[in-house]
Specification:
- By secondary structure, the protein is mostly helical.
- The protein has one domain: Up-down Bundle (Four Helix Bundle (Hemerythrin (Met), subunit A)).
- It has helices at 16-40, 54-80, 84-115, 124-143, 149-163, 166-171, 173-176, 185-191, 195-232.
- It is globular.
- The two termini are 19 Å apart.
- The model is unreliable at 1-11 (pLDDT under 50).
Length: 233
């Protein structure tokens, strides 16, 4: 089946005001979340101020997994009905998710240096997350190979489905391998109360707005790239 960009036009963008306001809202919310984290949420008794990196580390990990889930769904939709919209959305979500996953590993390393006295250990949670980053980095590299739009989209869609198989291992790694020393991201969030829970939820929502702005920006970049391809075809 030929992949026809002319017959698979990307749907019209959302209103310009919302699109311009989304990055501003994301930046403002992220700034506000830092105030909530450092001025509102109390310090944890054992770890002190370094524990506050948790309010950024956990949302980064969650939005990374959500991005990869979006690639998974978009890939299924693409295989059912090839369209430039799903192809561009998958690429945008993969790049955004990879950025979030890398930042989650980076913030986790800073936390681990204080908590475990090492920057990195081959813990099941860390190892599966690192593998996930390599998988989606390979996914993005495949998308840059010199294939036709149709073949690149089909190969990428299959990879996008298979790549997500590692995501549940990341999420449930602390329960599948009880010997892990990494805190359970589900149990850890449930154990919070009061101002700590509010700070976490506020940071999660703020990062979500910022994530949406990045996703929209990368999607529009891919849309412009498709337009250039059509003009030069």
């Amino acid at each position: 089946m030929a992949y026809n960009l002319k017959s698979s036009r990307i749907p019209p963008a959302r209103r310009g005001k919302l699109r311009r306001g989304l990055p501003l809202a994301g930046g403002a919310c992220m700034a506000a979340s830092h105030y909530v984290i450092f001025a509102y949420a109390p310090e944890e008794k054992l770890m002190g101020v370094i524990q506050k990196i948790f309010y950024l580390h956990l949302p980064l990990a969650w939005w990374a997994l959500f991005s990869f889930f979006l690639v998974f769904l978009g890939s299924i939709c693409y295989l059912k009905r090839p369209s430039a919209f799903w192809d561009a959305l998958c690429e945008a979500a993969a790049e955004t998710g990879l950025l979030m996953a890398f930042l989650a590993l980076l913030t986790g390393a800073v936390w681990g240096r204080i908590a475990w006295n090492v920057w990195w250990i081959w813990d099941p949670r860390l190892s599966t997350t690192l593998i996930l980053c390599f998988i989606y980095a390979a996914y993005l590299l495949v998308r840059r190979l010199n294939f036709s739009c149709a073949r690149r989209g089909s190969i990428s869609a299959v990879m996008g489905i298979l790549a997500f198989l590692d995501a549940p291992l990341v999420f449930f790694s602390t329960r599948l391998w009880p010997q892990t020393i990494h805190p359970d991201i589900i149990g850890k969030s449930e154990s919070l109360s009061g101002s700590m829970r509010i700070a976490l939820l506020f940071s999660l929502a703020s990062l979500g707005i910022f994530w949406a702005a990045l996703l929209d920006l990368r999607y529009r970049m891919d849309r412009l790239e498709h337009r250039l391809i059509r003009r030069n075809a």
